[in-house]
Design a protein that fits this description.
The chain is of the alpha/beta class. It contains 17 helices and 16 strands. A hairpin with a 5-residue loop joins strand 5 and strand 6. Helix 6 runs parallel beside helix 7, helix 8 runs parallel beside helix 10 and helix 13 runs parallel beside helix 17. Keywords: Hydrolase. InterPro entries: GH, GH13_cat_dom, O16G_dom_2.
Length: 552
């Protein structure tokens, strides 16, 4: 087999096309100063872990000034660092060390909304109705005899009305928490400010951007505003009920003008800065954000949401590759992130299980076999890493961490819990701080405690418990990423049709083959040298259930 190593040098403008990007949720990664909250110095201290893991880049979830009404996505200043997490000098030091280690840095950009503590919003409250300051946001008069009713029936993603009234009687739009007022992207001052923000972080060494809620910036704000008629039509899931590009505030056609403008800025750097869209939209619409003259990539959430089923996965992989190719982009693959149940648990839930109901049960209805979940998660990871395109990993998945579903309600931080009237438990279970050591007050997360409690079971998952241990999940990730760099070439695959039911098998260049057994029966491997498997082969050298093998 010919060994090739991808060109990830600073001079290569296409380094991102088949890169592995590791998401760091800073507040839960490492706490350097002992206040219980992760920080930038903590991230810098642990960059050697990422380099040894073999990833190509780290994506930093928001580290901006924030009151944490939404885990840092309520941003009070898009061009500064939260004092609890460090300083701009700390960001510069992190970026310099990452680059020294050969790692790219991706910054999380939050353009749909600000914090209500942002200087602009505070100015808007003081300025009053009809002011230029209010035009940066979406303020409207209410309905009813005294303006006491919201301007429309639009609903927030986090539950309840998407409108909040202010003391002078007007209402402002917030598609998420009330502490997150939406910006008005029809306002040129808003657009200019984000151009400044893109240049600010690019000039400081950021290699690219992850764009939060990329599909919601453009909105139909022509009067009269449209009611939707039913609460569920405010959801991204309702996009299929509207002609493409016509929902009042999701995935409107006008949003692409914004990203074409951004691309001119990103391409002015050498190499060009990368970008990836968080856009919860159907595949054909998602790839519009990934066009070369826009952001270049978009997260494939359909893959994240796919059932553990061979036929469904094959169809989705095939369509995803075709969509990316048509857009001139590379495909993206992701199994976990800071918004969803960790895949070591999620993939074991029976089809049709409501994730929220499972979380509300503390993870007991149904019970999830952690060992079986880890086996399936490892198989899913090797499958994902064999696919053409970029893979996005979420911190802690290299340790095999399960969802912490039994967090007591009194410790929950996610605004979803309160905003839904304590009906939806929220996303805290995937954000519990990482375990680095097998002992200590926070398992090595910091010198003191952690902002969310860690279960005792985390000790067995700690980096210290797995480092150098043959067969551990950490060592599997290290081996897979090292091997992946040698094997990668091209962005295509060929399906092998002569496979047993419930088995996925495809070939990449030079005969590199990936076989994933999603069935309940062990199957014989194809001829070839076994390079790596997610679990030991079964008796007779068979590939067991919930196992992926790479062969040459």
């Amino acid at each position: 087999m010919t060994v090739r190593t991808p060109d990830l040098s600073p001079q290569n403008p296409d380094w991102w096309r088949q890169a592995v990007i590791y998401q760091v949720y800073p507040r839960s990664f490492t706490d350097a100063d002992g206040d219980g909250l992760g920080d930038l110095k903590g991230v810098t201290q642990r960059l050697t872990h990422l380099a040894a893991l073999g990833v190509d880049a780290l994506w930093l979830s928001p580290f901006y000034p924030s009151e944490l009404a939404d885990g840092g996505y309520d941003v009070a200043d898009h061009r500064d660092v939260d004092p609890r997490l460090g300083t701009l000098d700390d960001f510069d030091a992190l970026t310099a060390e990452a680059h020294r280690l050969g790692l790219k840095v991706i910054v999380d950009l939050v353009p749909n909304h600000t914090s209500h503590q942002h200087a602009w919003f505070q100015e808007a409250l003081r300025a009053g109705p009809g002011s230029a300051a209010r035009d940066r946001y979406v303020f409207r008069d209410g309905r009813g005899a005294h303006g006491e009713l919201p301007p429309t029936d639009w609903q927030s993603v986090f539950g309840g009305s998407a409108w909040q009234r202010v003391p002078d009687g007007q209402w402002y739009l917030h598609l998420f928490a009330p502490e997150q007022p939406d910006l008005n992207w029809a306002n040129e001052e808003v657009r200019a400010d984000f151009r400044t923000t893109l240049r600010f972080w690019s000039d400081r060494g950021a290699d690219g951007f992850r764009v939060d809620v990329a599909h919601a910036l453009a909105k139909d704000l022509d009067e009269p505003l449209r009611d939707l008629g039913a609460p569920e039509l405010s959801s991204e899931a309702a996009l299929t009920e509207f002609a493409p590009g016509t929902h009042p505030f999701y995935d409107r056609d006008e949003v692409h003008e914004i990203y074409r403008d951004w691309r001119k800025i990103l391409d002015a750097y050498t190499p060009p800065r990368t970008a990836v869209a968080e856009a919860w939209v159907p595949g054909a619409r998602r790839t519009l954000y990934a066009r070369p003259d826009e952001l270049g990539q978009a997260f494939n959430f359909e893959y994240l949401q796919a059932a553990w089923d061979a036929d469904a996965l094959r169809a989705l992989i095939t369509s995803s590759l075709a969509d990316a190719r048509a857009a001139g982009a590379s495909a993206t693959w992701v199994l976990s992130n800071h918004d969803v149940v960790r895949h070591a648990s999620r993939l074991m839930l029976p089809p049709g299980t409501d994730d929220n109901a499972w979380l509300l049960s503390g993870g007991h209805a149904p019970e999830v076999d952690e060992a079986a979940g880890l086996r399936r998660a490892r198989a899913a990871t090797l499958l994902m890493l064999a696919l053409p395109g970029s893979s996005y990993l979420y911190q802690g998945e290299e340790l095999g961490l399960p969802e912490v579903a039994d967090l007591p309600t009194e410790v929950l931080q996610d605004p979803i819990w309160e905003q839904t009237g304590r009906v939806r438990k929220g996303r805290d279970g995937c954000r519990v701080p990482l375990p680095w050591t097998t002992s200590g007050p926070s398992y090595g997360f910091g010198p003191g405690g952690a902002w969310l409690p860690q279960p005792r079971s985390f000790a067995a998952y700690a980096v210290e418990a797995q480092d150098g241990v043959d067969g551990s999940t950490l060592e599997l990730y290290r081996a897979a990423l090292k091997l992946r760099r040698k094997l990668l070439d091209g962005e295509t695959l060929t399906w092998e049709d002569d496979t047993p039911p419930g088995v996925l098998q495809f070939t990449r260049h030079d005969g590199w083959r990936c076989v994933t057994n999603l069935s309940d029966t062990a199957v014989p491997p194809p001829a070839g040298e076994l390079l790596l498997s997610s679990a030991p082969l079964a008796a007779g050298g068979l590939i067991g259930p919930d196992t992926t093998a790479w062969l040459a």
